[in-house]
Amino acid sequence: MDNTTVINDTLQEHNNGTESSGRPGFVLNGITTGIMVNTSLILLIVGGNFLVIAAYVKNRRLRSGTYALLVSLALSDLLVGGIALPIRIYGSVKSWDVSAIFIVFYTAFDIFSAVASNLHLMAISFERFIAISRPFYYQTLSVHPYAFASMASWILGVLVASLHPGNYLKNEDEQLLKTQILKVYSVTLFAVCFLGPLTVISIVNIGIFRVARVLIKRVPLQHGGAGQRLRKERKAALTLLVMTGFFFIAWFPFFVINMLYISCVECLPSSLEAQFVMIDIVKWLHYSNSAINPAIYAYRDVEIRRTFARLLGPLGRFCRVNQVEPEYPNTHLDIDMQTRK
């Protein structure tokens, strides 16, 4: 994201240093390893998120506001795997000896897709909180709140990416100003893309489990349709909890390193080789968040898993459809049926 320029400078300095010392092998091996890992991530991200979108198109039972948000999230993750990562592979092969326009586009697109993905996760968690804490109100929701949440995530992604100082401060005499603005921007990005969503998701998850615990005490899980609904919502809450855990693991190291580059460079390893490896690892971690989300859906959601199994044909047995709990009545409104204003 906003440390792409740092990545470029680090790689170029590292390559120059290794060539003069007669050790180009590390660079070659590093690029080869990076291409292999990035390519694997592309396959996982594109394949998994394409399955989510295909499942939504194929199965009318998935055409609800809840699943529409998941598809919008899958689309943002698909952009990560289909565009951001291939650009990164090309940049790595070229040792980031590319044009300034290329760097600006990669940085902006990387920020855009990441912000959109993370804000979608926040919107999904908030939607689940309404579903379990205000079920009657939830059943009256039209498609408009879901469309607003999705559009807001995309628009904020575009806005945050467009405000990156690297987009409009390029002259050498503006370098000091760019550094100062970049510090403010990095803190803002940390709040918008990580701290804000993580705080909201954590608070909402706590609220979901507290409401579910109270309702379970009042209505036993064996109590007909109400018990089935509660079991389904509790399972959705556990899914959000797993997603929150992966979200923290994937993004926290990246933002720590990013903030250190801005405010405490001496806190980082002095070796350029170590910085080279460190940057790749934290980038792989945060890209992996786009790969893990579809896997979580497939494992936790019965209807999506069954649709995956049908789409995958002979490979569908890996979805282990017969080993999940019975499907419960759909509590979501079909988008095609939502005509209320």
TrEMBL record:
A Gene Ontology BP annotation from the UniProt entry: G protein-coupled receptor signaling pathway, coupled to cyclic nucleotide second messenger
Keywords: Cell membrane, G-protein coupled receptor, Membrane, Receptor, Transducer, Transmembrane, Transmembrane helix
A GO term for molecular function: neurotransmitter receptor activity
Domain G-protein coupled receptors family 1 profile per the UniProt entry, residue ranges: 48-297
Membrane topology value: Multi-pass membrane protein
Subcellular location field: Cell membrane
Annotated Pfam families: 7tm_1
Keyword hit for Cytoplasm: no
GO cellular component term of the entry, any: synapse
Spans through the membrane: 35-57, 69-89, 101-124, 145-164, 184-208, 238-261
Family: Belongs to the G-protein coupled receptor 1 family.
Annotated protein name in UniProt: G-protein coupled receptors family 1 profile domain-containing protein
